[in-house]
Amino acid sequence: MTEATTLQTGHVGVNVTDLERSLAFYRAVFGFDVMAEGKEDGRRWAFLGREGRLLVTLWQQSTGSFATGRPGLHHLSFQVGTVEEVGAAEEVLRGLGAEFTYDGIVPHGEGGTSGGIFFTDPDGIRLEIYAPTGADPADAPTPAAPTCGFF
After folding, report:
1. Do 60 and 46 form a contact (C-beta atoms < 8 A)?
2. Would 70 be classed as within a structural domain?
3. CATH code for the domain of 128
4. What is the strand order of the sheet 53-60 is part of?
5. Does 66 fall in a domain?
6. φ, ψ for residue 92 (rounded to 5)?
């Protein structure tokens, strides 16, 4: 690739154990539209996005729960425009009974203004919703280290 090449993340594929459960969760939390879906036994999947842009694909081809101690995905992060949007997502998640890593909106680091919420999906996959500003003046939960790196 050359420097002139435009590169950006396309979409993220996530293995899940129960497509219906995960589909309901991701749609409720992120407001995703179902862009396409496969319902064939043994080949269940869903393409999720917004405004015609594919963002997340769900693949029902796993058992167990997300293994945080193994190499692979650390967490999946979504940026929103304001800390108020983070708070609205937190309300939805609390209503769904989601598990949170920290209590409430926390900054990404000591003295930082960006921050958000850290939680898991129904399969234990670590997720984050954050805003670039507005998380101050709360204390960071992991002093001297990035909040999003050690949860």
Report:
1. no
2. no
3. 3.10.180.10
4. 12-16, 53-60, 43-50, 33-40
5. no
6. -60, -45
Q: Residues near 72 by Cβ (< 8 Å), separated by ≥ 6?
A: none
Instruction: Tell me the CA end-to-end span of the chain in Å, nearest whole number.
Output: 34
Eight-class DSSP state of 116: E
**What domain range includes position 94?**
75-143
Q: Angle at CA 73, nearest 5°, toward 72 and 79?
A: 160
pLDDT tens for each residue of 73-103: 999 999 999 999 999 999 999 999 999 999 9
Q: For the segment 95-112, what is each residue's pLDDT rounded down to a tens digit?
A: 999 999 999 999 999 888
Residue 85 tokens, joined? 């949007």
3 inside domain: no
Give dist(CA 136, CA 98) in Å, integer.
Answer: 24
- Report residue 34 as tokens: 């179902």
119 is a domain residue: yes
17 with 52, same domain?
Answer: yes
